[in-house]
Every structure is written in C-alpha cells, then in structure tokens.
From TrEMBL:
InterPro entries noted in UniProt: Dcp1, PH-like_dom_sf
Region feature (Disordered): 1-39
Location (main, coarse): cytoplasm
GO molecular function: enzyme activator activity; mRNA binding
Keywords associated with the record: Cytoplasm, mRNA processing
Alphabetical list of SUPFAM superfamilies matching this protein: PH domain-like
Protein name: PH domain-like protein
Source species: Pleomassaria siparia CBS 279.74
Gene Ontology terms: biological process: deadenylation-dependent decapping of nuclear-transcribed mRNA; deadenylation-independent decapping of nuclear-transcribed mRNA; mRNA processing
Record carries keyword S-adenosyl-L-methionine: no
GO cellular component terms attached to this protein's record: P-body
Amino acid sequence: MPSQKSRTRGQQSQPQPSDYETDAPPIVDVSPPPPRSNEELNLSVLRRHYPDVTALRHVAPYAVLYAFNLDTEQWEKIGIEGTLFVCELTPSLSGADRFSVVILNRRSLDNFAMELTSEAEMEITDEYVILQGDQVYGLWIFSEPPPSSTANTRVETAEKIKALATQAAETRRAREQVVKNGADTAAEQEHVQEGSVPMGRQLSLRELFGQQRVQDAAWSVHNHHSPSPGPGLTGNDVLGQLFMKAKQDYNGVG
C-alpha cells in the first residue's frame, strides 16, 4: 500500500491542464521591409564612407586606377580597382553644385575619391579619363565590344564626368559672381549713405557756414540795438546779426 508521501508526489507530477489561448505567445504579423533597389543599396554603402554623397549620377561596373609617374613617364597601377561611381555631393557654402568620382576598392580598404572641380583639370583619351589632383590619375574603364551591354560604358562614363565637371565649374563661378555683385552693391550703398544727408533732416548752421567759434556768449544782448551790418563785418558778426534780426522780428521790433 503506497504511503501518503508517495501519493502526494504522484499527484504533483501529473501535467496540469493548459489554456492554449492564454499560454501561447501572441502572433505578431510583421511584414518584411520593402526590397531596396541596387541604387539605394549602393548609395547606402557610399554614404558610410562619404557622408556628403547625396545621389548617384552614373555607375561603371569596373574601373582600374592608374597614376602617372613623372620620373619614368609611365602609367602605373596603384592597387585600386572596382566599381566606379559618379556622385552628387552636398552643395558648397555658396550654393554651388559639387560632384565626385569614387572607386570602391575590391583589393583592399583603400578607396579612391576625387571631387570634380573643372573641365580644365581633366582630359579624355582613347584609353584613360585623366584627372588632375594631388597627382595625375588615369581611370581605365572596362567595356566590351558590341553587342555587349558594356560596349558604351567607357564613352558614357567619360562624357558624364566631363559634363558634371563643367557644371560644377559654371555654378561655382556663377555663385562667386553673385557674392561679388552683392558685396559691390553693399559698398556702393554704404558710400552713398556716408556722402549724403538723410531725408527729413535739417542742416545745422555749422554744416551750412562751417565751423564757427562763438567768442561772446552774450552777443545777442550787446548787439540788440546795434546798427545794420556793413560790408566789413566778419563771419561771426554776420551770424550774430542774423540771430538779432530773427529775435527782433519775434519781439515785434525792427
């Protein structure tokens, strides 16, 4: 006969009834994020390295970067090759457009980025797109013969780089001219204001007759009954007589 303790242990080991709706975790219907395009993915990667990139203007699947050695006068690979991006950057402080060329390197962590400032600092040859920076760089852009989809990649990339370099230079010159015109206008207005008298302001006697020295503070009393001024009176006497005449007219005298 089982003891009371054994019966108690057996009762505790029995499974307890479960309310499925209460115990089961709630089902949350989370829709997956919308798929991103290749351009959005590329832009996200670029902005991790270069936060001032705002948009992609052109992509070349594969490019190799060369540098021109002035001593040997030869083009040399510098270990940077990969996808080439032509990017739009945040505008300059003056509001001019800015663009750059970026190569995300497949061989190492060293990428290449160079801002396009002027069409005068680049040249397009049959083999390279040449950019003048801290040194002379040559972009070799991969393309295959027709009817491949990459047949026109080299020409299209070169034309896009040149067009954006021209746009950057033109907008920069335009913004500089606006700033210069604004500065010239402000200087002219300041010069006019300094040399003119504000509207509604009455000129003082000092401005009309020049700096006059008052020699006698009581001249109006002394000259109250003085005769009319003669041709030999000084500037101070003339001013005194003017004031005397005005005072006499005010008092009804004269």
